[in-house]
């Protein structure tokens, strides 16, 4: 799978409404057949920073994502709400879901 983590520093005046601003893009991406997950979190240290964790089945699915109309729309509309260009880590991982964190195994 293609595993991506990106950090978005949102302008302070738009930080609270970022989930709504990115809502249509998020919903459309989650509906893609090759999208495994597309999850936003807000930083505990910087209220203007959102972290996106996303995964796509393979390179073909990742390519379909970046060539989709909703991705192109996001390229046109989302930058106006950002302080800077998002930072990203993207890698290919030989798995198709989350693995358990064995060091913190829950035993009941």
Secondary structure topology:
Layout (H helix, E strand, L loop, with lengths): L1 E8 L8 H4 L1 H8 L4 E8 L6 E8 L2 H8 L2 H9 L9 E6 L16
Antiparallel strand pairs: 1-3, 1-4, 2-3
Helix pairs in contact: 2-4
Describe the structure.
With 108 residues, this protein is α+β, with helices and mostly antiparallel strands. It is 27% helix and 28% strand. Strands 2-3-1-4 form a four-stranded antiparallel sheet. Helix 2 runs antiparallel to helix 4. It is globular.
Q: Calculate the terminal CA-CA distance, rounded to whole Å.
A: 32 Å
Number of strands: 4
**Rough outline:** globular
Unreliable spans are none
Report on the biggest sheet: 4 strands, antiparallel
Number of helices: 4
SSE class: alpha+beta
Order of helices and strands: EHHEEHHE
Instruction: Let me know the average pLDDT.
Output: 97
Rg from alpha-carbon coordinates: 15 Å
Helix content estimate: 25-40%
Strand line-up of the largest beta sheet: 2-3-1-4
Taken as a percent bin, the fraction of beta residues is: 25-35%
Which keywords apply here?
single chain; alpha+beta; 4-stranded antiparallel beta sheet; 4 strands; 27% helix; globular
């Amino acid at each position: 799978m293609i595993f991506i983590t990106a950090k978005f520093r949102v302008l302070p005046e738009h930080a609270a409404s970022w989930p709504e601003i990115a809502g249509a893009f998020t919903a459309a991406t989650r509906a893609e057949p090759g999208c495994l997950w597309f999850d936003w979190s807000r930083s505990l240290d910087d209220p203007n920073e959102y972290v996106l964790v996303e995964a796509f089945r393979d390179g073909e699915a990742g390519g379909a994502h970046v060539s989709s109309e909703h991705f192109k729309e996001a390229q046109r509309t989302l930058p106006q709400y950002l302080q800077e260009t998002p930072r990203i880590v993207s890698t290919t991982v030989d798995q198709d879901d989350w693995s358990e964190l064995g060091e913190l195994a829950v035993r009941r």
